[in-house]
């Protein structure tokens, strides 16, 4: 009885064919495969070797012929480009062997896959967890392919894309890019290689945002980086983390790394992924602090409130943050305040506030806001506890005594809480961040302040500065 050897012949460069595959080709009575590949293996075949081709999309006929010849005692090599086990002939040959119950011996010889060759040409983009996805829907329903794309994007895998485009398959790669952008930054590196290892080879490096799916064809492999992939020296690199474990400065940033991972997890679980950057940055902070995804429904950042307030910080026009209670001031990052030259103040314990509260019969937080407005009428005011204090600020704004740089309205509770937030909304000339309804809290108000102070980190989704 003969045997079948299923061999991967690599992407097309003679130097990429393994010695084991060359030895198998040397002994083959017949080679079965798509005729395009015969040109790459001709030098290794015996003069009397038969080369059998059944044409495109007739893989089952090829496998059947291989079994017929092997059953006659012949050694048959079934060839696939790249690795025969990756979108190649190996699975079909093994399936057929099981179905027909043949005694023919089947073995597999691995080859260098097209994505491995493409990766080597691009640098080191597959240095960590990766997956391969074929966009060909001839044998796999598109709904299944799309589900796999979503999973790969959410799982932060490096993705190698096979069969990205053909004459009839023109839109699928556009859809993959769209899905990837729901979970990855537009700056994510993308590399694509056409005809890897062959004379027509072309290597391109771009970003997910700039990537043009129409620039590739069926002979192209596309590699999309993960959240850690970067470009240096014209090469695409996905680190594995060796420097993270050895670098002392990185050890000091463990908290920042954890926060970055948390933000990326939250981003992947958002119901909507096309939020404006300022709103998304505030939203990620809010959910990270509360673990409450209802924030996606109740956080209101007005018209680019985060962007406007950060601009005032960057230009030195916002120098003071006034809070209703000390817990809010305590939660604002001291490193950020020092770096930006901003002072966070709470007047709750101010003797003047105590005296005013006793005299006027109002709450101390309410009295504290009156005094704060007298000292700092143009501050950013952040409320995480006391609705009466927020209502007092609204009264002072309407009377012209206060002209806040911005308002963070996040008091929590059941009495006057919702009303106090509604009172802020008519101030359309003031950048406002409002947590609608009863929810809020000191930690939430503080983290929204931190989102403003670190907005320049938002585009890279790198939170945790000044921890």
Task: Please state the overall shape, judged from the principal axes of the Cα atoms.
Answer: elongated
Number of helices: 20
Low-confidence stretches: none
Helix/strand/pairing category: alpha/beta
Number of strands: 19
The first-level CATH class name of the largest domain: Alpha Beta
CATH topology of the largest domain, anyone?
Rossmann fold
Strand order of the largest sheet: 14-19-18-17-15-16
CATH homologous superfamily heading of the largest domain: Cobalamin biosynthesis CobH/CbiC, precorrin-8X methylmutase
Rg for CA atoms: 32 Å
CATH architectural name of the largest domain:
3-Layer(aba) Sandwich
- Helix fraction, binned, reads 40-55%
The N- to C-terminal Cα distance equals 71 Å
Largest sheet, described in full? 6 strands, mixed
User: How much strand content do the residues show?
Assistant: 15-25%
| Residue-averaged pLDDT | 93
* Tally of individual domains: 3
